[in-house]
Structure of Extracellular solute-binding protein:
Amino acid sequence: MTTGTRRVEAPRPGWRTLIRPWSRAAFAMCAGSLFTLSSVTMQPAHAAYAIAQYGEPKYPADFKHFDYVNPDAPRGGTLVLANPDRSTSFDKFNPFTLRGNAAPGIGLLFESLATGSADEVASAYGLLADDIDVASDGMSTTFHINPRARFSNGDPVTADDVKFSFDTLKSPKAAPQFAAYFADITRCVIVDPATVRFEFKQHDRELPLLAGGMPVFSRKWGVKPDGSRIAFDQLAFEKPIGSGPYLIESYDNGRTITYKRDPNYWGDKLPVRVGTYNFERINYKLYSDATARLEAFKAGEYDALVENVARNWVRRDVGKKFDSGELIKREFPHHNGTGMQGFILNQRRPLFGDVRVRKALDLALDFQWLDRQLFYNQYKRIDSYFVNTDLQAKGLPSPGELKLLEPWRAKLEPSVFGVPPKQPDTDPPGSLRANLLEARALLAQAGWTYRDGALRNAKGEPFVFEILDDSGSSAAFEPVIAPYIRNLQKLGIEAHFRVMDFAVYQKRLDAFDFDVTTIRFPDVQVPGADMIDRFGSKAADEPGSGNLIGLKSPAVDSILRALVGAQTREQLVDSVHALDRVLINGYYMIPHWYSATHRVAFKRGMAWPKTLPLYYTAEGWITSMWWFAAPQ
């Protein structure tokens, strides 16, 4: 059982459906599947069709298509999908501003200068750009725009549009995270009408990928017939002018939207686009909650369901249509880093300021019971922020890790310098009782003792907090939270489960107005400066940032600087391992569980390529690479 990521934009294939646009990795993951792009090998300046983090890109300059697509896939039909995340409505088409909920799939309208491949962790191939020139000193990157590139209104994509997109996204009119992500790109310079140069504040191996992954839109978006312009942060249902494969055909009441393939889409013959976007239309229907969404699928109202709830997969994704083969269930393996999902303990709340308290709350979660009773033994416990990758810290710190950690030894938990802790276990010889006894001792050390019917501090204040969730996922998560609350009650802790509409929930999270909530951080194959937004001290004070934890740690900030500035794969791994050690020993989250497969139920007649991508999310893979084998 997993939850979706906290929604701050409409999902998108590539930089679209796969992760929030607020992560740097997202900008460098354009179109098709889950591709993590960061840190480019800095070769002497020359124009290239692609760039790679280390060595050379997998695909040669004359490649015809990616290995994991079907270049002969038939086109046509209407793909109908449900809510791709927790949102139950939308109130805008602009995915780049902070307020409001953008329409699902809106990223289908936008493209970027470069895009990644789903069978490499760090390569970028030209999309809007037909060559990429990384300066020999690493202080700038120049992109030449493909002369065939066109916006949906027929205008050519120009250097003016790229600069306009960059300047707009970095301005106060866009969500504040963009300015943070682009902070080290000092400016975008127009070299000529078809060429732009991004100049960097420092030699950061991620910046060329960040620049290449920036979504590009027309400078005419928001311009009225009289020539006046609607402020970017006021754009709502003004249709975006992008260069992507789809156009908005229709929408209704913020609950449904249909995209139609642009008949004049310019990029069909590009090697990075061959075999992709095979549906003539993609229609999203938004349902009020997870139960309604599931029942609608079983009634045949939409074509494919990505199932994130193990109980549903085993017990509810069944019935006559499954028995007859009209609906099919299948698990698809992936090699994604699984990200971190868990209960976030908001460090802005003094209640969670003591690491002993946070560890005690971790001890109260009985994962083994949940896995047996609710998850049908389908999951493994998360024990790292980078689980399922070689970036997970294991064993004792290496010399490279110690170099980063030693200057901060006095400010770090001593356990950081040992073997990373295992998550609490209740399988024999372990037990919940033993874990709760350990938790009680930790709480007592932190000044919390049981008296007058509750766990209280020295001031007599009871230990009370709220677990916040939204209505779209609460039905699935309540069976998990209820036993956890019962375990906390045994310690004298009073926890309340509060559910609210997603829009209100999102505002609460953007304002960091919560005690505890459930979050799944996006999958990361090659961490980059997106980690600064997620764990950096400055981001902790930026409303709407990814630092929901509220973490402010000079040690973490120092490690993050080393991570972003890593010049070799070894340096990157050492810095990520060091970060993982500090985070996992800080008990800032109560980790949940993960699976290495995507569970997908779909209608008979849908098809996909024989070769699976390595790094992908199911929703983006379906929209970008599946097709209808049977007539629709």
